[in-house]
Please model this.
Amino acid sequence: QVQLVESGGGLVQPGGSLRLSCAASGITFSKYNMGWYRQAPGKQRELVARIFRDGSENYVDSVKGRFTISTDSAKNTLSLQMNSLKPEDTAVYYCNAEWGWSTYWGQGTHVTVSS
Model:
């Protein structure tokens, strides 16, 4: 059974930092492209950052230079370091694993950026 479990969300002031983690089980972690998506209230889910099996990364323009995605294959963990957070980063953040026709999602973790 595949499970992706996110953690690390919370309330933070503008300019602050958070680190999200996603613990993966039931998959061969190194075979999957991993990503973070987010969905703000009333908006569609969007890709935030993705890291591919070859180690390459991409980011949505709005988070470039502020967010960093990383993996720890030994621990089957995906992380997202978020710095210089803005109110518009407020959303539910989801972990995603994708390989071929297989795609899996976590349950999401809430991030609220507010003073």
Notes: The radius of gyration is 13 Å. The longest strand covers residues 91-99.
